[in-house]
Amino acid sequence: MKKVLSSVITILIGMTILTACGEKVDQETSNKMTAKAEEIVTLINDGNYDKASESFSDKMLEQLNRADFEKAIAPVLEKSGPFETVDKSTVEKKDNFYVVVLVAKYEKEKRVFTISINEKEKIEGFFIK
Q1: Which residue ranges does the record assign to the DUF3887 domain (predicted)?
Q2: pTM value?
């Protein structure tokens, strides 16, 4: 469990750095990256962690395997209740990553997903708050 928590904290710190400042992206790229992030959120909402982790970069998989990803995320989503909709999304580019922030509404509470996607459309970072 400590390893899972350590991995999640490492990812969180990386995400905080990535989201600190970024440049705006064009509408086409924004739509493409938002769709990719929403696909990942849909997969985890459906409990399909295997399929979601197929989109992870090699670097991300070194830090957080599928089983640990599920252990970290599933309890948070269970507490939130059934997924309803994505209320808001933003996309910025920071270095070679697109940082997508999705505000998702669940039955019991809202969750904010911050997902970093590289130029090969692989997930480099994932954070849920």
Answers
A1: 37-126
A2: 0.78
Rounded CA gap, 103 and 105, in Å? 7
Which H or E run includes 114?
strand 110-118
Q: Are 124 and 59 in contact (CB under 8 A)?
A: yes
Residue 30 and residue 91 in contact, taking contact as beta carbons nearer than 8 Å: yes
> What CATH number corresponds to the domain at position 63?
3.10.450.590
Tell me how many domains the chain contains.
1
Burial-class residue 114 by CB neighbours within 10 Å (0-12, 13-18, 19+).
buried
Question: Mind listing the pLDDT tens digit for each residue in 98-122?
Answer: 999 999 999 999 999 999 999 999 9
CB 105 within 8 A of CB 81: no
